[in-house]
Give the backbone structure.
Amino acid sequence: MRGRYFLGLVIMMAAISIGCGRGSGTHQDVPAGQLSVSPSTLDFGKVPVGQKATKAGTLRAGNATITVTSADWSGQGYSLNGIAFPVSVAAGQSVSFKVTFAPQRAGSSSGNINFRSDAANSPHTEAFSASGTQTGTHTVTLSWRASDSNAVGYNIYRAVKSNGPYSKINSSPQPEATFTDGSTQGGQTYFYVTTASNKHGTESKYSNEVQVMIPNS
């Protein structure tokens, strides 16, 4: 729900630049009382900015049931889905999960995820690696300032005509007051607004609208 209170209005700056720019399985290889995560590394390769790639992983228990209580992860553009905590992994069985990489800017990105459980070898780590690539010849870099300190992140919306309808173009709230849109098309005009989000997910009103015309070449 987009609140009319709690968060101040986000003011988008004119600093816009255009540049080129379930499981089943066995417990083999899993020591008694422990949990394994596989694969140990997820390599997403090259993913165009504005698109996303998803890979699957597996948690496998040895000869005893393991309760996985939580997971935390780091890395720009990564998210975990397909699993809810706490989850029990039965002895000799496995539980699957998915990791999605949605780059918001070009460049390499690394990270990892730590699963915490009551197993003897907790936490269980899986590493990520990927590279965001630029699909178009131009990018739009937006920056803004918010008038409220309760904001913990920002969402960016884009439309092809003034006053919308707008579509959110970021995969998760931006922690910083800047965003680069790498999914633009030459010759197109875009209209951008942003909102501030608090820790409960409540969003402010839309900011002022900013218009950007993308060159044909």
User: Anything to note?
Assistant: The CA atoms of residues 15 and 74 lie 29 Å apart. The domain at 35-133 is CATH 2.60.40.10 (Immunoglobulin-like). Residues 1-8, 14-28 have pLDDT under 50 and may be disordered. The chain has two domains: 10-19+136-213, 35-133.
